[in-house]
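Researcher: Here's a chain I'd like modeled. Treat it as a single chain, no partners, no ligands.
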Amino acid sequence: MDFDNPAIELSDEEFESQTLDQACMEDVDINPSINADICDFSPCSNDQGQMPSYDFNTVLETAGFGRYHIFFMIVLGMMSFADAAEIFLASVILKDMKCYFNLSPMEEALIPAIVFFFYALGSVVAGKLSDQYGRKRVLMVGMVVLVVSAVLSAVVPTFLLFILCRAVTGFTIGANYGVSVVYFTEIVPVRHRSSAMLGMELFWTIGSVFECVVGMAVMTKYGWRLQVGITVIPCFLALLLLPFCDESARYYAISGQHDKAVEVCRKICRRNRTSMPQGELKVSVEIRGNISAVFAPALRKQTLLLAIIFFINMFHVFAIIILLPDMLLNNYCEASSFLGKEYNSRGCEILSRGDYEMLLVSALLSVPGFFLGSDVVERLGRRLSFIATAGIQLVTFAMALPCWGTWFLYFAIAAMIVSSTTFNQILWIYTPEAYPTYIRNTAVGTLNAIGKVGAATGTFLVETTDARSIRASIGMFIALGLLLLAMCLLLQKETKNQVLQDTQHDQEGLSYATLQERVSSVI
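Model: Modeled as a single isolated chain. Structure tokens:
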């Protein structure tokens, strides 16, 4: 920094302050162990007397991936844990509730249908609101409502009140998941987005396993109320941790809140023990949360393609879970059923040990899918990963058609689960990257809602299809898989190693190499 620049006249006090800042920067750069909290970096002019500027992407690249991001991953991961536990809850308690409330088949089917419907509604509403009012604020409200509705679900005396509580729970889960994924994506450096998402998604698997383990320990002796009550615990823990997270600096930047955005940037650098870029943080004011902007001419094709992709992807993910027990119970390809039947102390049928084993295996098979999805997007890029995984899915569906023995069928089922999870992981990495900050949550929320319509459609069709016609369901998977592959081939935008756009005026497709050049000019 040139303090002798005649274009800038500094008082003795200003000179001493800037000299101290420069010395502090040099210490931090040379010795990262020095705590950067003592440094207060003042904006400095360049050689032409102009104030250099930087954006949030530059801050993230300067700060790297560190303690700040790990804390966020744990907190938002706990939210994913809680969401997974609440989603799996219906599978664990449904049989016991059917007996407890003497439910008709229509009332029994109403429980997952209500959750899916309000999940989709919550996803759209929260996506729009979080673009308008902030990510953290929407998540805080959502988690408070989730905890209250989940607690009430455990104590309500009638089925009608239980359904109302589960409707609110479904709404908040839909609201929380999409917003939390975007929230985390926005604060992670370019080169770490896929690996960071892997860490967050593993909490989903842990939540699923938690629900199954608790069910095996609780349901036989104590029934569904205690199961619902225990499921609230991870929701409550996530609510306690969330206040310690900062609002997204990207949201502050596009809403014109300069000082708050700078404060978050400083905090990221302090916690990661790095120095702040010098200059002025660029902020702008955008009209946020406009759903019509998601379908603007420049984004219309991309949004329509992703809408179809989300629908089919969620159709596959959830319908496969329903199809698996149908295959075993109906002796498909002479596969022996290990599910059996089990009853609790009131004489009500509950999930058997075989049922829990099947749920646990399904949950654990998502782990290799998460790892594969996060790895392949960095090796092949997002577009090629979509195409390759969609093609592999088709092969796994076809493998379930011929009856080549029980173990081959088990292998085909496992391959179906892994490939669908891999595709889902790629989709959730790609989608937040494909939209600018001012409509990112609106876009993700809308697409996630369309996906949940696909999930509801898939589960309904598989449940209502004659269980003896397993091949009809598999044929439906293959037909949709072909359409999915076609949509992936038409998808044009590649987001690997590209910085996130914040406004509609930002340069699209800015590469990581260009970002590094910008970083070197402001540090």
